[in-house]
Write a structure and sequence with these properties.
The protein is mainly beta. The chain contains two helices and 15 strands.
């Protein structure tokens, strides 16, 4: 951990790291978003000017860089990314009612700003509250969140209908639904810890998009409704489709139906919080025929 110095002595490289994400608003105590400041279009402020976190103060810094191996959400399997983060201690501290504290007591905590980059599009940033006197966490909370997600073994939808062995007919409503479990639909909760920091993540499927194989797509915001014989020829109230042509011209005489689930993961810990997204798929082949009329 480097020595704390006055903000007017911060070198240009450290200054540019801050000014990419922090805004200059004289006398203001307003965040662009609760807990995270984005100021990519802000003017570059050099040494001797006011470096701020949406409030006008001189900033002393205690910078640390960690080469975390975290990965961004949204990948199916994912691979380690080269996420590097720099911590900047905010000195002096903002007022107690500032959103960056997230309700924490400034008298008992320190505030850091974490700016990260993997050299590409993944540039997460945010504020971290650390108990006073304790070192800032060297592990990136988002990396721990991803570790927690990886331990969940999230899978694609467990398709209950349509079934590969089912018999489906043009013009007859098809009801689609999935079985719900911790690994195929959620909720699924797991934690990961390192260097005294624990992050807890909770994942749940927020939507299932069905590619029906005939060029049509259906988006369902829930697991779907199981069909009951008493429903007759009615359409599903939550997730269904009606085919307008048979699958006779498709490969193997069947449509390939792909159900893609989007997992939304909320995580918190290490003085930070955020959201990740994971995507999983399951395929099933279904035959769609037509009613044969015998005369």
């Amino acid at each position: 951990m480097g020595d704390e110095v006055d903000g007017h002595g911060v070198d240009r490289s450290r200054s540019s790291l801050l000014t990419r994400r922090l805004a200059v608003l004289t006398g203001s105590v307003v965040l662009a978003t609760a807990g995270t400041a984005h100021a990519d279009d802000d003017p570059d402020v050099g040494a001797g000017k006011c470096h701020v976190v949406k409030f006008c103060v001189g900033v002393g810094v205690d910078d640390e860089t960690d080469g975390s191996g975290g990965q961004a959400g949204g990948s199916q399997g994912g691979s380690d990314s080269k996420l590097e983060c720099k911590l900047t201690k905010v000195v002096p501290k903002p007022p107690a009612n500032h959103p960056a504290w997230k309700g924490a007591d400034p008298e008992k905590n320190d505030l850091y700003f974490r700016a990260c980059s993997d050299g590409g599009q993944n540039n997460p940033d945010g504020f971290i509250v650390v108990p006073q006197g304790q070192p800032a966490p060297q592990v990136d909370p988002q990396e721990l969140a991803q570790r927690a997600v990886d331990s969940m073994t999230l899978l694609g939808p467990d398709i209950a209908s349509p079934k590969a062995a089912g018999k489906y007919t043009v013009g007859v409503p098809m009801w689609m639904w999935v079985n719900q479990s911790a690994t195929t639909y959620g909720p699924n909760t797991a934690s990961a810890s390192a260097d005294g920091v624990t992050v807890t993540a909770t994942a749940k499927v927020s939507k299932v998009v069905w590619q029906m194989g005939g060029g049509d797509s259906v988006t369902c915001n829930g697991p779907g409704t199981p069909y009951q014989a008493s429903e007759g020829m009615s359409q599903s109230p939550t997730c269904g489709h009606v085919y307008s042509k048979t699958s006779a011209g498709s490969q193997n005489g069947k449509y390939q139906v792909t159900a893609t689930s989007t997992w939304t993961i909320d995580w918190q810990g290490g003085g930070a919080a955020g959201q990740l997204t994971e995507v999983r798929q399951t395929n099933v082949q279904v035959a769609i025929g037509e009613v044969q009329v015998v005369r």
